[in-house]
């Protein structure tokens, strides 16, 4: 706490961003560990449903409205790719939820640290000037405040920004992988529907 107080005003946005980033990272880790694998399995199960006769639509709800759209397509023998794409996009958006926050933190936390460095140096030189004009000796202790603020905010910004950036990149790779799987699913659905003579629009 002592170091935070020495960091000046711009340490507080960094502290708030660190809390926010930590919450997002924990939430996303839980999602990618427990929820995303279920979505993978549900997508695979939906793709492997029988395309002739009665189908077993006992698919987990992890796929949301995509399952209902596939049910209607099967009943009507008509596949609306644009509608499926909309539902698929909702799935992808759910997987990449909150990642924008991590991206913002990764970019702005070091900038807040840099801003704190600049303000700390300004205070440092103002202190030097005021002491010179007053004829007072310039000692290391009299300059410590500005140096503390400059160094602490820089370090804090990097400490928060680097993990946020790493988490954003890793999570984004998982999102891209899932998005590729969804795209492959849509392509395979369209291919199978055309082979069965369905109307594909």
The gist of it:
The chain is built from six helices and two strands. It has one domain (2-47, 58-200).
Could you explain the architecture of this structure?
The protein has one domain (2-47, 58-200). With 201 residues, the chain is mostly helical. The protein starts with a helix and ends with a strand. The radius of gyration is 27 Å and the shape is rod-shaped. Helices cover 80% and strands 2% of the residues.
Oligomeric state of the chains in view? single chain
User: Low-confidence parts lasting 5 or more residues at pLDDT below 50?
Assistant: none
Shape: rod-shaped
User: For the CA atoms, what is the radius of gyration?
Assistant: 27 Å
Key features of this structure:
mainly alpha, 80% helix, rod-shaped, 201 residues, 2% strand, two-stranded parallel ribbon, 6 helices
Strand and helix map with partners:
Blueprint (H helix, E strand, L loop, with lengths): L1 H5 L4 H37 L17 H12 L1 E2 L1 H15 L3 H35 L6 H56 L3 E2 L1
Parallel strand pairs: 1-2
Helix pairs in contact: 2-5, 2-6, 3-4, 4-6, 5-6
């Amino acid at each position: 706490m002592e170091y935070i107080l020495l960091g000046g005003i711009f340490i507080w946005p960094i502290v708030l961003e660190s809390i926010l980033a930590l919450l997002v990272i924990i939430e996303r880790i839980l999602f990618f560990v427990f929820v995303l694998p279920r979505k993978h399995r549900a997508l695979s199960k939906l793709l492997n449903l029988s395309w002739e006769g009665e189908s077993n639509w006992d698919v987990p709800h992890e796929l949301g409205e995509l399952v209902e759209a596939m049910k209607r397509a099967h009943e009507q023998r008509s596949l609306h790719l644009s509608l499926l794409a909309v539902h698929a996009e909702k799935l992808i958006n759910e997987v990449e939820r909150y990642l924008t926050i991590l991206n913002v933190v990764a970019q702005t936390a070091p900038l807040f640290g840099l801003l704190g460095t600049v303000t700390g140096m300004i205070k440092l030189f103002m202190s030097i000037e005021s002491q010179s004009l007053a004829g007072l000796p310039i000692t290391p202790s009299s300059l410590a405040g500005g140096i503390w603020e400059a160094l602490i905010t820089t370090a804090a910004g990097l400490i928060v920004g680097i993990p946020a950036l790493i988490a954003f990149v890793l999570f984004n790779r998982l999102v891209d992988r899932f998005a590729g799987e969804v795209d492959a699913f849509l392509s395979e659905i369209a291919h199978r529907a055309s082979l069965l003579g369905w109307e594909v629009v």
